[in-house]
Model the fold of this input.
Amino acid sequence: MIATNLPEIFMHTRLSIRELADLYLDILGGDFDYFREIAYRMGAKDILDKKIRELSAGFRKIIYNAISLASKSKYILLDEPFENLDPARRVAMLKEILNSKSVNLINTHMTWMYEPFGRWEAYIMVEGRVYGPLEAARLKELRITKEKISDAMLSIKLSSGVEIYLSESTGIPLSSLDTLDKLYEVLTWGL
Amino acid sequence: MGALIKLYKFYVKNNLKDPYYWFWAVFFILFWLYIGAFVWGANMSIERIRSIIPHYIADSTIHELWIRMTIHYTGAWYATNVVFSLSAITIGLVYTVYYATIPIRYLTKYSKISSVKFYSSLVLTALSSGILATVILIVATVLIYSYRFHGLKTLILPHNSLAVFSVTLTAMLFNYFFAMTLSLLTIVIRKPRFLSFIGFIPFIISYALGMYTLQTSGGPVNLSPYSAVLLLNYHYFTGGPIVENQSVTDMWRYDPLINQLILTQQARQGRWIPLHYG
Done:
């Protein structure tokens, strides 16, 4: 079984979030009470009787994340689970994900979360190509440069022909970038 | 089975909260019923019959004739509106599925619900939506036309309610499968953008064939399911015969009871009673 927070897999409905979650968790074999607990912990208690389309982007993300996590599927794929969340809710959501017993696969541009995910395997995707794996916590220590270096842990070739290198010794620390979106700009427009 | 019921309940509730369902399948049809009763039927009255029938014909006979005529008129409107209403419902349901192609693909692959169960729940939803619309339509037809023609002192009830209901539900299934097949065709031929046009084909056909059967009829058109539904509903509502190559608006002439009254009248007076009112 696979669960995900992608909005595309959720039906457009005029029914409430409670009813939508109830349907999905029932047919996915999940736990509605657990969903409700997550929603309460994330401060989304009062929105369960609203419709999805009435929510802000952040609350939608919380609901989709919560349904995915409460599905207790073997694999849970979370697309940008922290996007549009305020700092407090980001931390709260991080705890929920770390408490999940499923195999989680997350994609994110956030660099602040390398450390909490510790020993998770991390892959970097640039222009559709996947590089890795690396230990998530180690990404924090990595630096990026265009100079060819001997101790590079990863080398990434861009479509422009430029090759860049990740190492522990040379270049800009990845952790100095707020998001990996900025990485591409830095790589493209010069280090 | 539990998952199927859950999904079925979800879709039914979703449909009941759909304003398009209520507008196109219910209120728009009520509007047509109103037009039929109070605009197109404005000139129909028992006094009109009295004025053209010799004075020595008993009031009870005139009253009986009047009741039979109003049953035929009501049955024709009911039968026509059923065809319009069901096609409107199916459009809404087909669009619901069309906009849920990714969720359906996901849920049938990664949840307890199979494709067959999913499709079954949709068919059950279509039937339920059809039943609700039909009940509203029958009740509204009986009340509006009974009020219009008899001041609610006599109710114009279907001659065979069970048969009317069965034909309507069968028609709902046909409409649903037809509309769904057309919409799936747009996916098979990889032209999903055509759905906005193809999705309305059942609606357009229902109006075209419905009006044709009502006003003109005859020929191979009578073989179309829309015409068959209209004719069968008319037949079971009125108890009158289905006459080949006759429009529904003229079929009341062939009602045995009315015919008998007319023949008697002809024999006595040697003249023909004009049968068109309105």
In short: The two ends of chain B are 54 Å apart (CA to CA). The interface with chain A takes residues 2-3, 6-7, 10, 13-14, 17-18, 99-100, 102-103, 106-107, 110-113 of chain B (CB under 8 Å). The first helix of chain B runs from residue 2 to 16.
